């Protein structure tokens, strides 16, 4: 156990490379033990600040628009958000490896494979959620200005969008320490607004609300569709390691998992419940406008300001992780630069969604429904890999992207992970029932959307089965990255790297070659 005084000193005196108010110098690289600091409970505020958001209020309303009853919608809200437990599990790989999730994914997909299924998907998913946040914040900001009687000249709404986007990304550019410093303040401010909103929502709620009856098959289809929409939010956070990687390697894994999961689960349940209950009293097709029917006039601008702030705070974490994912694509660009580049792309796309797309809400729903077909399998493979490797990851080896490195595997890909993703995503897509597309499996089941269930189950089961046939699992001595997370002793520990520095300058040292050979054996089935 750590001495409390030492732990407090480590927390309060962050290393110079990770200081609030300074641009973080680390990116997708390995955080050495000398720069580790912090406590697991800090993760609660990080995830809380990012998840006290308007999106959950909208999703709660969407469940009512699907025709579900009040109690069905509340149950789906809880069940879909149980995926936060898995997000907590993923976070424990951060302290173990000292790297972000995009680097850890090289263990399950290989260096090249992770550029597609890790970095590539991560950038796409990150930009998608950045677009959502910018769109919500822009629409709320425009409504707020209109409420104050401010008339904008033609085209000025684009300037509002750019300002909102800029505020969304500036904290992400500064990075980890700044996010940790500001998170409690953002959480407190947003929580107060939602508490006041809850008073008005429950005061206007119609607890006798009854939806229009549906045929049994259609009813089940809407229940499963609602589950997929709710699950899409926690499933999009396969980035838990990003915010836990600065913690000491010997920190409590249980504490890391619980504080991460609770930071996302609590606000998702509370705010989602508000959206569901509000759906019994107002039309949730456009809650930014209809909310005025159940709140006093003085609260409407506060509500709109809350939407702006919560969208920005959520974008802080999204932008930060998207920048790390972009680094994982293999480009030699700093993390701060990738945050800006992906932010510019998201801003341009958000402009199309807000000002050009025919229906933002319809587009949002369809995108969330389809996103689950990829997000579920990805999170499942990641979680199963942590269990199979017992959370033992060699951070130095994971950041070595050279040909023949330990996680190069065969041709740069780890086929158990690649195959599991391809098969599971295909099955999930065939099982999806969305407003844009109905898969043949869903059609055969009367429209039931099982994508959020079968995708993760197929991915996790197939990956485990393929992993268990590899030589490293049958021979523990040949397992990749089987190092002691607390001591860092292993083929890529600081000691072995120091010994092999001269050889590494010409290619690989003997230790690296031996490790690479063991990793390539992963391709040999039982």
TrEMBL record:
Origin: domain of life: Bacteria
Compositional bias of kind Basic and acidic residues: 1-10, 19-34
Membrane topology, as annotated: Multi-pass membrane protein
Annotated segments matching region Disordered: 1-34, 478-526
Chain ranges passing through the membrane: 44-70, 82-104, 116-146, 158-175, 182-205, 220-244, 256-282, 302-325, 337-358, 370-388, 408-430, 450-469
Coiled-coil ranges from the UniProt annotation: none
InterPro entries registered for this protein in UniProt: Pur-cyt_permease, Pur-cyt_permease_Fcy2/21/22
Primary location group: membrane
Keywords: Membrane, Transmembrane, Transmembrane helix, Transport
Subcellular location: Membrane
Ranges of Low complexity composition bias in the record: 478-505
Gene3D superfamilies membership: Hydantoin permease
Keyword Lipoprotein: no
The keyword GTP-binding belongs to this UniProt entry's keyword annotation: no
Membership in a protein family: Belongs to the purine-cytosine permease (2.A.39) family.
Protein name: NCS1 family nucleobase:cation symporter-1
Species assigned in the record: Agromyces ramosus
Phylogenetic lineage: Bacteria, Bacillati, Actinomycetota, Actinomycetes, Micrococcales
């Amino acid at each position: 156990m750590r001495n409390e005084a030492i732990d407090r000193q480590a927390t309060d005196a962050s290393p110079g490379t990770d200081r609030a108010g300074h641009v973080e110098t680390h990116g997708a690289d390995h955080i050495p033990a000398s720069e580790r600091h912090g406590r697991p409970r800090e993760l609660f505020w990080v995830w809380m600040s990012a998840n006290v958001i308007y999106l959950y209020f909208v999703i709660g309303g969407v469940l009512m628009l699907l025709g579900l009853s009040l109690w069905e919608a509340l149950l789906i809200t809880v069940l879909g958000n149980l995926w936060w437990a898995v997000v907590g599990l993923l976070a424990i790989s951060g302290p173990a490896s000292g790297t972000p999730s995009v680097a850890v994914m090289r263990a399950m997909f290989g260096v090249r494979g992770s550029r597609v299924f890790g970095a590539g998907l991560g950038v796409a998913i990150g930009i998608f959620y950045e677009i959502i946040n910018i769109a919500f914040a822009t629409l709320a900001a425009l409504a707020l200005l209109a409420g104050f009687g401010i008339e904008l000249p033609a085209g000025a709404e684009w300037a509002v969008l750019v300002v909102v986007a800029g505020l969304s990304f500036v904290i992400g550019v500064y990075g980890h320490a700044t996010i940790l410093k500001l998170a409690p303040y953002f959480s407190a401010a947003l929580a107060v607004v939602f508490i006041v909103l809850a008073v008005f929502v429950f005061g206007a709620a119609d607890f006798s609300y009854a939806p229009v009856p549906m045929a049994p098959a259609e009813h089940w289809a809407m229940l499963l569709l609602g589950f997929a929409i709710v699950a899409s939010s926690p499933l999009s956070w396969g980035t838990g390691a990003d915010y836990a990687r600065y913690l000491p390697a010997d920190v409590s894994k249980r504490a890391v998992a619980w504080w991460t999961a609770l930071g996302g689960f609590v606000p998702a349940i509370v705010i989602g419940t508000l959206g569901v209950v509000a759906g019994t009293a107002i039309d949730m097709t456009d809650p930014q406008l209809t909310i005025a029917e159940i709140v006093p006039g003085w609260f409407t601008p506060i509500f709109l300001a809350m939407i702006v702030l919560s969208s920005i705070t959520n974008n802080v974490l999204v932008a930060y992780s998207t920048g790390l994912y972009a680094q994982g694509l293999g480009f030699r660009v700093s993390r701060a630069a990738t945050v800006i580049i992906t932010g510019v792309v998201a801003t341009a796309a958000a402009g199309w969604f807000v000002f050009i797309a025919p229906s933002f809400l319809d587009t949002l729903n369809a995108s969330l429904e389809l996103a689950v077909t990829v997000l579920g399998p990805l999170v499942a493979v990641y979680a199963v890999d942590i269990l199979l490797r017992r959370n033992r990851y060699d951070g130095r080896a994971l950041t070595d992207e050279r040909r023949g490195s330990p996680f190069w595997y065969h041709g740069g890909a780890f086929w158990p992970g690649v195959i599991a993703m391809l098969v599971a995503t295909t099955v999930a897509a065939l099982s999806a029932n969305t407003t844009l597309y109905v898969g043949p499996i869903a059609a055969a089941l009367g429209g039931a959307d099982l994508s959020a269930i079968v995708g993760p189950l197929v991915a996790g089961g197939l990956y485990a089965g393929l992993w268990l046939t590899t030589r490293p699992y049958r021979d523990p001595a040949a397992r990749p990255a089987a190092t002691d997370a607390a001591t860092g002793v292993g083929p890529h520990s600081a000691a072995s790297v120091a010994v092999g520095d001269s050889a590494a300058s010409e290619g690989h040292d003997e230790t690296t070659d031996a490790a690479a050979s063991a990793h390539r054996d992963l391709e040999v089935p039982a």
